[in-house]
Amino acid sequence: MRRTTTGGPVLRRTVVLLAGALLLAGLFWLRPGEDDRFARSAPQMEAVARTLGKDQVLKRQTIGVLTFDAVYWDGDAVVFPLTNSHLAYIWSPGRRPGDTSRLRGPWYTLWSDPH
Asked: What pTM, to 2 d.p., does this model score?
């Protein structure tokens, strides 16, 4: 009697590759988005904003789970420009800075497109 195979090693490799691709896609899909990362970092960012001196500039800082090129005062607001992005978070408890979008409370976002 002859044994019939339905793919053998080729089928197993295909199933393993497919499972690996699905796992990677799931991990990418479930990673925290920028809003989640901001929500987790906002309390620490506000603490930095409240203690930062008016003439002080913090170079390349990781606060919470976000990394910023610098943190500095611009008028009456503290600016947190994200590294490798055109997005900046702005903490301004007194008023809304011009050309920004309200995020929540005293937080705003600024999208600067160089083009």
From this structure: 0.68
